[in-house]
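Table S2 (continued). Query chain:
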Amino acid sequence: MMQATKANKSASLVAGRAAEPSREPRDRDLDASASVGDSTLHNLQGIYEDLLGKLEENVVTDRPRFIDDYIATMVKRDEMTTLWTDPAFYRHLKQAVFQELLPIYDNFRALREKVEQKLERGTWSRYCLWTIGICLGIELVISEGRVLRPQLLIPAAIIDGLLGCGLWYIANFRALSELRRIKRRLINSINDLVRKQQVSDQYEIFRTYTGGDLLKAELEQLLASYETPMEFWGDYYRVRKTDPTSEAERDALGISRFNGFLELHVGGTYSEEGRQQRFDALFLLAHKAFILADRKNYVLENLAPEPKETL
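Corresponding output:
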């Protein structure tokens, strides 16, 4: 049973990698995915579990070199499969492995070794032999030696051995439960790490699409050209509804104060998704600016119910 427990160490860590169909970025999408573009092509959880499984299965004396070789092999395989690889993804992957994944794994190994030391103090084979010996001694006295007959000795030894295994499990139930709990904690830690990195990836894309500080500067210029929030929201509604992507559409709209904001839209820098992201971010930032400028009245004025028409 102890051998089966050790044999399952790597099995609990190994998972298959999944790949999704690739999509060649274009224009602004290429820049937006510069640091996280290949993350959509990989199952990060599968990568982490596969790497830890290989660390379990192999005797690794030079861990940094082993990880470098693992990532180099993954790069070659990805390049042959997709013909599109982003070096930034593999740099970030290596950094995450060394700074976040390996400390989690080292902590897991330290906790697991403590539990295994407790289990090794009384192995299941020792429990079985002692149980068989004691029980056969008692049966020998009770049966006056008849238990030594082959037709009785073999079944008695089997039953006593099973009793010894049961006693070993009962005696080590707490340690076995703790070992399973440690493995679950490792899996949960990997899941949390993957979720955190996915949120970071989405935030980087959002920051790239919305322009970050660039959008804030554009907002300041826009608000400075309007006297009232209602005037701004009127133009914003028209621009958002039209979503001009050419100079002709922008000029036909006739809202010159939005020309600076629409310059990158008209130039084809952003995809449709990128433009919507910028409009959404501008909406939120403008509301925030108006609230800060007039905390007392702005929210109440915009939440005031419209008067109903009477027949």
